[in-house]
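Please, structure for the following, as tokens.
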Amino acid sequence: MPFHPLPVRDGLNPTRLVLPHDAASVERWGTALEYLLDRFPADAERLRAKVTAREVVTGRGTPVDAATPYEPRGFLFLYRDPPADEPPAPALAELAVLHRDENLLVVDKPHLVATMPRGRWVTQTVLVHLRRELDLPELAPAHRLDRPTAGVLVLTVRASVRGAYQDLFQERRVRKVYEAVAPLPGYGLGLPTTVRSRIVKHRGIAAAQEEPGEPNAESVVDLVARDEERGLGLYRLEPHTGKTHQLRLHLASLGLPILHDPFWPVLLPDGDEDPARPLQLLSRSLTFTDPFTHQDRTFVSRRILAEWRVAPKGG
């Protein structure tokens, strides 16, 4: 984890800037302040104020002033102002704590709430909200749920245990069970089935894509209940890998796009989802062996997908 010489403030980590080290950069900027003003011209007034208030520091923790020299390959840390036009996230009020101990905080995340600051959402995120509300400055997610997806989300309370829990997810030692509402399968599609494909997320493109090549994503898909009247099914999904948009893309590739998905079958503009019709995808449960107690632990969401009329059993 990167060293931050500035503490978390108001739920937000400081931003870390890596100073370019090419020859042109060295010649262009004589001081660290010149670099900041050139990179963020729209924030010039606020940047000067932050430097005056000693709120910009080097990687060694030394406050930057007007004479601090530009240091190629060096670091600058500062608090960026949250965006003034950040959209509200009223669903944050529905965030529920499922479990808390000295190492873990497990929550039931609502739909349309981002896990951590990214893009248009900064303060209206699970991480920043909980750091503020519970006074937990070291809180960090052990994994991530996409903003449209609801359900079980595990966060670590202390920095000293963060790596051990994150490794569980990175090394695929967590059993994940999701539920989704999607159209009933067409003739000839046998379920359960295992979907394997190569999924790639390209920078600047909102939705991940399937591409030819060695599979890097695997999901088990099963139909557990049917609603013949509406032509909908409740699906149980077990991802064996954790690629971006994996379950959404795999169901779409089977001709079963998840109900109200903003990406499939039609791509909607970012943030243009209808709050009354959220993506019908839920992280129902997570199971793993705790790296410290060595006990098996299971956390289960209490939510019911709004488009499914009967509460699903188990998880």
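The chain has two domains: 15-78, 90-300. The first helix runs from residue 23 to 28.
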